[in-house]
Amino acid sequence: xxxxxxxxxxxxxxxxLGAVREGxxxxxxxxxxxxxxxxxxxxxxxxxxxPHSPAVVAAAELAERQARLTDVIDCAxxxxxxxxxxxxxxxxxxxLTDTDGVILHLVSSPAFAEAVTPLGFHVGAVWSEAExxxxxxxxxxxxxxxxxxxREDHFFTRLTSLTCSAVPVFDPQGRxxxxxxxxxxxxxQQQHSLVLLGMTAQMIENRLLELRHPQAHVLHFHSRPExxxxxxxxxxxxxxxxxxxxxxxxxxxxxxLGSVAELRTRxxxxxxxTRLDEIVQRSLRSAFHPVVSYGAQGASRFFVVAxxxxxxxxxxxxxxxxxxVRARTPAPRSEPRREAAASVPAAAADFGDPRLYSELKRxxxxxxxxxxxxxxxxxxxxxxxxxxxLHDASPKAGGAFVAINCASLPESLIEAELFGYRxxxxxxxQRSGRRGKILxxxxxxxxxxxxxxxxxxxxxxxxxxxxxxxxxxLGAEETLDVQFQLISASHHDLVRAVAEGRFREDLYYRLAGxxxxxxxxxxxxxxxxxxxxxxxxxxxxxxxLGNDSGDAPRLSAGAQTLLEQHPWPGNVRQLRHALRTALxxxxxxxxxxxxxxxSLSEAPRVLAMPSTVRSSxxxxxxxxxxxxxxxxxxxxxxxxxxxxxxxxxxxxxEQHRWNVSxxxxxxxxxxxxxxxxxxxxxxxxxxxxxxxGAAKATRA
Length: 700
Prior knowledge:
Layout: H1 3-22, H2 31-43, H3 59-68, H4 70-87, E1 92-97, E2 103-108, H5 110-116, H6 129-132, H7 136-143, E3 147-150, E4 163-170, E5 176-184, H8 191-212, E6 217-222, E7 234-238, E8 244-247, H9 249-255, H10 260-263, H11 268-271, H12 276-285, E9 291-294, E10 301-307, E11 325-328, H13 339-343, H14 354-368, E12 373-376, H15 383-392, E13 401-405, H16 411-419, E14 420-421, E15 434-435, H17 437-440, E16 444-449, H18 456-468, E17 470-471, E18 480-481, E19 484-490, H19 494-499, H20 505-511, E20 514-517, H21 527-540, E21 554-555, H22 557-565, H23 571-585, E22 591-592, H24 603-608, H25 611-619, H26 628-631, H27 640-655, H28 660-667, H29 671-680
Parallel strand pairs: 12-19, 12-20, 13-16, 16-19, 21-22
Antiparallel strand pairs: 1-2, 1-5, 3-4, 4-5, 6-7, 6-10, 7-8, 9-10, 11-13, 14-15, 17-18
Helix pairs in contact: 1-2, 4-8, 8-27, 14-15, 21-23, 28-29
C-alpha cells in the first residue's frame, strides 16, 4: 500500500474509533452507522484496519441453504436480472442473502464479479456484521429496514471502495426471509437505488405469496381502481371459507393492521362487507376488472378483484392485468378461453362495424393458410383483441396464444425472452434454463405487439427464425424445430421506418403477408352501440351502486352527444376509463350527465383544435410553461422500474424547485449525468439554460 493509502486507511480507522468513543453526536456520521460501528468494535471485536475476510460456508451447507429458500430464489431470479439491467451499471451486482447474511444468488458482470472476489464478495460468503463489519447486507439484517452504506460508512477500510443499498424481503407470514442488495463501486447517491430495490422486493414478495399458497383464493384490492394489479395493491391469500392465510405489506397498510399475525386472526367478512363466493362471482362477471366493496365499518371504499383457487379453476388460464409478456392456454375439452377479449372489451366483430367485420373475415382466410398477418392501429384500438379473434378461428386455436409486447421489455432481455436460454448461459440465469416465448407458441400463435420497437440487431435473428422455423436458445448449440402462426402489430408506419433505416426491409416483407388497418374509435360506425355495451359492462362490474330502482345509470342527451363526438385519441381504452369515471361520479344517481365526464370537457377541445389554432394559442403566452413533451399523452412506454425511477426524479426536481444543479448535488452526480438520465426517462426541461440551472417540467 502506498503512503497515501496508508494515511487514508489510518484516517478512516481514526474516524470510526473517534465516533465510537465520542458517541454518534460527536462524529460526522448518522446514528445508525455509529451504532453499527459500536457493535463491530465492542460486540464482534473487529478493527477497521485489521485484515479480515468474510467466512465462506462449505459447498454442502450452501446447497442446503439454497434448497431451504428455493422458492424465494426462484421468485427473485428474474426480478434481480431485470433490476440489474435497469441499473445499467457494469460496476455493480444485485445480491440475495439469507437471514444469516450468506450470499445465495448474485447477478453481475463477470468482470465485476472477478474484481470483488478478493474482498470475499461471492456466492457462499457470509456478509453479516460479525463477519464483514458495517455493510449493506449485514446492517440491513440488524436494522430490519432499508439502508444505504456508502463508501466510508463501511467499517473495514478495505471495503470503502464499495457503495451498498439493501432492503429486507418478507415472507407471506411477515417474517424476514432474505435481504436484497445492490453493491457497486460507483460513488452515486443511493436514493433511487433504494426505491428500485424496494419495488423489486415487493415484486418478489407478491410472487412468493402466491407460490406458497397455490390453492388459495387471491384477493387484490386498493382504495383507487387504477392501483389494482400494480405494486401498490393489497394482496391477500384466502382459504375456501374466507379465512386469511397471508397478506402483503400493502394490505397491512391499507387495512390499518400492524402484522400478518394480526391479519391471520381475521376472515374476509371481518374486513370487507362481502363474502368470498360473492366477490369471486362479481369478479368473474366483471371480466376481472375491479369491483367496489366497502370496509366492514363502512368508512372505507375499496376496489377489489378475487380470483378462484387453482382447485376451482385453471389459474394460468384466468384473465388478469395485461402483462408485457403473457401466454394463454385453453382448458382441456372446453372452448378456448378469451381473456384478452375480456380484459379489453369490445371484440372486433361484436358491434357491427362493417369495416371491422370485413377485415376480420379476410384475415381469417389468410391465417387459415398460414399467411402472417400484420395489424396497424392506434394505441388502444384493439389490436390484441383482434389477434385473439384470429387465433380462436384459426387451425391452431387448440394451441397457446403467446403475446409479447416488444416495446415494454428491456432490450437486453428480449433475446432471452424470445429464444430462451440453457442453464448457466449467463450470470443470474435459472439453473434449469428457460424456454423462450417462441417455443411456448409451438403449434399455436405468436403475437408480436409493437414490433416496430424491436431493436435492429434482434430483427435479423427473428427473420432467420421466421424463415427456418428453428430456434437456438442462448448458450446452446442444438436447434429446435418450431411451428406457429404469426401475427404482428404496430402503431408505427413500418414502411416509413424501413425508408428511414429503423426497420429491416426483408423482415417487413416477411411479416406483412396480409395487412389489416384497424379503424380508430372516432371512425367506427358502431360507436353508439359500443358505448352502450361498455356502459352496461362497467355498470354490471359493480363500479357504482346504481339508483334506487336498481337500474344502471343512463346517459343524458348531452353526455351521449359528447361521447359520440369526442375524438378519442386513446380509443377504446380511453372510452372505458371515461365511462368508469362517470359511473363513479354519478354513484347513486339515475342519469350520467356532461358534468360526470370532466376529462372530456377541456383536453379534447385542445386536442381537436386545428394546428394553426394551436400554434396561435401557443404563441400567445410568454410565461415559462412546462415543455409540451412532458405533457404529451404519447410518452414512450417505460418498464415498472423505469416508471418508478422517473417518479422519484420528478419528486426530487419538484423538491428542489426544478434547480438541476441542486438535484445533481443531492444525487452526487454531475449535471451531464443527470441530463442523460432525464433524457432516458423522457423528462423534458423547458429552460435548461435558465439562470442557476432553473428548469421546469410536468408529469406525463
